[in-house]
Design goal:
Five copies of one chain form a homopentamer. By secondary structure, chain A is an all-beta fold. Chain A has one domain: Beta Barrel (OB fold (Dihydrolipoamide Acetyltransferase, E2P)). Chain A has no helices and eight strands. In chain A, strands 1-3-4-6-5 form a five-stranded mixed β-barrel. The first copy, chain A, is elongated. The mean pLDDT of chain A is about 95. Chains in contact: A-B, A-D, B-C, C-E, D-E. Chains A and B meet through strand 1, strand 2, strand 3 and strand 4 of A and strand 5, strand 6 and strand 7 of B.
């Protein structure tokens, strides 16, 4: 899984029927230092993630292992919302104290 | 999934029998700012996408989860046509107002 | 799928038993402008492709969806031979008129 | 599989229900010379790996083949802890003699 | 599949139980001209490959299609030992005449 930040939304009315009702999020990948990159993925939402949230996403067949995405033609899913992320004991991201951290 | 623009077509008369009747699209990947890149994929069409349309495509085993592609040797599928795509509340792409946007 | 050109052959007498009888092709990937690159893949042949032919190959679990490759430890398969490939109405490759095109 | 070093931890209270009880590790990939890189992956822990340990991780559907991860939306798993790693007879990493080696 | 050269070994005593008895090889990828690169993969051995041998490896779910790796958390397998590899009729590698070739 990788860290990502939900920075956008996508609307697609004409799509494979299995995608009906699935919310698609525009997620920009976050690098090892906590910075948002220009690498993105459009991911199905399995956890009710909101704009600006730091999330984790899984790709490939693993993206179809949530109840929301089972058997559907999606290759990426937001499967968790990050509370805290630490490297070497140092906080890189804290959902409840974003001023103290590097993102 | 990634955004892509359908920019070409492919004809292949000699192919695995499971591919009969499947339409193959030449799709160029679109980056996070909405620009078309030179990275491409040949994808099966599951939604009737046309030339010049902004689409989403899924890859890997997920590409075989549409009715059109089930059990077939394809590793990419166009599974949605994009109406609008916004980042941070700003419209990057709008199918019905393309002059106003950055693509 | 990606476009590739069959430029070489591989012989391997000691191999997993499921690979017996499977022809392996050395395929160099072709970029969006039709040029052969140094990126390669060794792919199983499901369509009787010959040296110098422009083909399409699929990777991952999709490579095991042909009759020739089902259940075998191969992660790439040549599943079609390209007749024509057009971008924006312009011919990039034409199997029967290669002098007129850019490859 | 690739070598990685466990350098961080992740806490995510809001997640897909199948992820309950699964420990997630922040793992930085190690290159062929034994150096830690900035390429990372968040991986499920199947072997009780601790901070600072040199591990191996598997990705894709293979990440779901451990008892800990079966059927879960994870695309990376730490499936082994490295004792020794040698290239050309030279020790690159030795868990019990880290001063003698290059990591 | 890609070509690789077996250049090292890995020992891991603490690992997922399904990995017991599986030999893990350190394999460095070989590029289209036959040169060894710094890109590596740790792959399960399904063919009894030895140090210094030129092999082919498969990745992803295809790595689990050999008898040795079925159902196991490995995402790469050495599934063949290369005898000869030719490009455009020119020998790039010949197991029995390595002085004559470019590797």
């Amino acid at each position: 899984m990788y860290f990502g930040k939900v920075t956008g939304t996508v609307v697609a009315s004409r799509k494979d029927e299995k995608l009906e009702g699935l919310k698609l999020l525009f997620v920009q990948q976050v690098d090892a230092s906590g910075k948002i990159t220009s690498t993105y993925v459009v991911a199905a939402d399995a956890v009710g993630a909101g704009m600006g949230e730091m999330v984790m996403f899984a790709t490939g067949s693993s993206a179809r292992q949530t109840t929301a995405t089972e058997g559907k033609p999606v290759d990426a899913v937001v499967m968790a919302i990050v509370d805290t992320w630490e490297i070497g004991g140092k906080v890189v991201y804290d959902k409840y104290d974003q001023e103290a951290v590097s993102v």
